[in-house]
Sequence to fold (227 residues):
Amino acid sequence: MQKVSSYLFILLTFYGCKDKIAENSLANFELKSVVVHEGTSLEVVQKSLNTSKYEWSIEGLNLYSNESAPLFFMDSAGLYTLQLIAKGGNGSSSIQKINFEVLPDTMWRLSNNSTKEWQISSILSDGVEQIVDDCQLDDVLLLKQSATSNDSFFFREEFDTCNSGIQFFDLPAKGIWSLNKANNSLAIEISSRGKATSFEFKIEDIRKNYFKGTDFAVNTTLVMRNN
Fold:
């Protein structure tokens, strides 16, 4: 009788474990926040059950991962969907999707939180274009952001080959810059020709690769691109 009981116990244990192994995978996760800003990461809290493989994807951003709880760096504002396909050892799979929003961030777009090169494509002063020669189109404004001191920039000319062009500034030049979030403007103080000149460009359009702003006090418009 004792042998029969032991045999039954082994059978029940075996089939109990077998049933557990055969349980279907359940995709389940949460986001620490469904709203993030450009330049930050989307964080995942993993809660899936009976899962041995993970397939994450964000359509529109071409982001993928097979980690259990990945971090996704966000660099494009918009509305997106994070999808998880969870797969179990028994071949089962399930899907969960969560929508989230990435908000634009002006500081990150200007500097990428460290250094960013902007190519000067237009400087209008009193309606007159100052970039009057093709060789001036390679002029670069290099923005540097620092957490401990004034944010600085270096304005350089890649190739000094202009013969007929009128330079708006003697290049290279340097200075400091700051973002005024209250009125959405980019302030720069450029040191050139032995003196400092200040501008405050009201931001009219800023994307990851395009900037347009106007200093209405001196009627000067600056257009920059980042390729």
User: Anything to note?
Assistant: Residues 43 and 71 are 5 Å apart (CA to CA). The longest strand covers residues 195-206. The chain has two domains: 19-104, 108-225.
